[in-house]
Amino acid sequence: MYAQTKLTNGLRVVTESVPFAQSVALGIWLDVGARDEQDREAGISHLAEHMLFKGTGRRTAQQIAEELDAVGGQLNAFTDKEYTCYYAKVLPEHVSIAVDVLADMLQNSLLDPEELERERNVVLEEIKRHEDSPEDLVHDVFAGVLWPGHPLGRPVIGRPESVQRFTRGDLVQYLARHYRPDRLVVAAAGKLTHEEIIALVERHFGGLTGQSSPRTSQRPDFGFGEVILSKNTEQVHFCFGTRGFDENDEDRYALGILDTAIGGGMSSRLFQEVREKRGLCYSIGSYVASYREAGMFAIYAGTSLTHLDEVRELARQELVSVAKKGLTGDEFQRAKNQIRGGVLLGLDSMTGRMSRLGKSILHYDRVVSPFEIVEKVESLTQNDVQRVAQLVFGDESFAYAAVGPFNASQ
Q1: In the annotation, is 49 catalytic?
Q2: For the purposes of burial, counting CB atoms within 10 Å of the CB of 209, is it exposed (0-12), middle (13-18) or buried (19 or more)?
Q3: Which helix (H) or strand (E) is 236 found in, with range?
Q4: Angle between helix 370-378 and helix 252-263 axes, rounded to 10 deg
Q5: Cα–Cα distance between 52 and 89 in angstroms, integer?
Q6: 3-class DSSP state for residue 285?
Q7: Domains 2-205 and 226-404 share a fold
Q8: pLDDT tens-digit series, residues 256-315
Q9: Which of 37, 41, 49, 119 is catalytic?
Q10: Can you tell me the distance from the alpha carbon of 284 to that of 400, in angstroms, rounded to the nearest whole number?
């Protein structure tokens, strides 16, 4: 059972009551992420997320960590390209503690300069770890190739040169611009009542005022070039793909079916052809991403340098083949079933339910139920899917990024 309320200050609250649940997942969703940063601010959303765990006027950083642990709960956060989320999972009787801690973090963080210096070093080490993980790094490189010069093409984690420059004043200004009630959604799912959550949010967030800075929106120009980054690795990790659909385009559901059939599991074309039949790699698959202004379709694989050209060509051939011939009836139905199963199995997770609620309100200002998603997927025909395949893959405009042991001549 869903319920939604908008407070007088503009903050939105959405809940899903799940009476059989033994827990409550509650998230504070901010409608701001790396997409909203200026180039000189690259990484400030992520650093701000870290800093909100570093102490308030009422709690030290250690006390923030201990308070949820003491009642068997969990506390965490993450930053994405278009949003930031602070969330907790607790037993139903401890929801008030979770709201109190999260509200304190978001509204009363000290942003202590000494803590900032320590956390800056933590983030710089995180960037180094990312650079040392080619299977992660290649996705950021690919986004930069596909969306050159656009904020969507920048890594969420930031760049060392920008992270090193940030001051406490920069963080204060950033939070003042973006951490306002009109950008904030409280989402909760589990054994709860809507009235209980509203009362807690009113008590802890009702005094939050102000409006956020207007968001600029600009669709990126797509790039279809190639970037090869040399790293001392055993394998080459590459992404190969093209433009997809933004989050408001109904064709994203058909692309989801294509993604599932092409590289979405052990029965997919890529897994069967490249790994099972030819033994050319261990990891291969595909994925889609949709944002407000753009989307992408990408194939990822890790393989040896000697097999790289063959694996890349096999990936290209599969996309061209799907554009020309579409999916078989069995592939089409199997992909539908996989999507349906994935969506409905996700209902077992209260954190998954809470995340779907938060994202729905941020993106659409309404709850998009899992059954609505399933219905949209089920309504598609093979002709719908082939039309989208031709639209996305038919002109063979592909971007490519690779990270691996290339020599200077390559």
Answers
A1: yes
A2: exposed
A3: strand 236-243
A4: 80
A5: 18
A6: strand
A7: yes
A8: 999 999 999 999 999 999 999 999 999 999 999 999 999 999 999 999 999 999 999 999
A9: 49
A10: 15
CATH code that applies to domain 2-205: 3.30.830.10
Q: Which residue has the tokens 């753009």?
A: 294
Q: At what angle do helices 44-51 and 113-131 cross, to 10 degrees?
A: 130
The DSSP annotation for 68-130 comes to: HHTTT-EEEEEE-SS-EEEEEEE-GGGHHHHHHHHHHHHHHB---HHHHHHHHHHHHHHHHHH
Backbone angles phi, psi at 392, to 5 degrees: -85, -45
- The top-level CATH class assigned to 226-404 is alpha beta
> What confidence score (pLDDT) does residue 410 get?
45
Q: Are 242 and 296 in contact (CB under 8 A)?
A: yes
Query: Residue 37: what are its φ and ψ, rounded to 5°?
Result: -85, 145
In the numeric block, the tokens 């069995």 are attached to 330
Phi/psi of residue 386, each to 5°?
-70, -35
* Contacts with 199 (C-beta within 8 Å, 6 or more apart), sequence order: none
CA-only gyration radius of the chain, Å: 22
CA distance 264 to 261: 6
CA angle in degrees (0–180, nearest 5) for 333-310-239: 65
Residue 330 burial (CB < 10 Å; 0-12/13-18/19+)?
Answer: exposed
CA distances from 133 to 110, 164, 312, 352, 363 (A): 33, 21, 21, 27, 31
Residue range 140-173, pLDDT digits in tens: 999 999 999 999 999 999 999 999 999 999 999 9
Tokens, residue 195: 């009235």
Classify 379 as helix, strand or coil: coil
196 and 92 in contact (C-beta within 8 Å)?
Answer: no
Q: Which two tokens stand for residue 3?
A: 């319920």
Q: Cα dihedral sign for 11, 292, 149, 132?
A: positive
Six token digits for residue 91: 């037993």
Beta bridge partners of 90: 24
- Its sign, for the CA torsion 321, 322, 324, 327, is positive
Amino acid at 44: I
* pLDDT bracket for residue 217 (50, 70, 90): confident
Determine phi and psi for 185, rounding to 5 degrees.
Answer: -130, 130
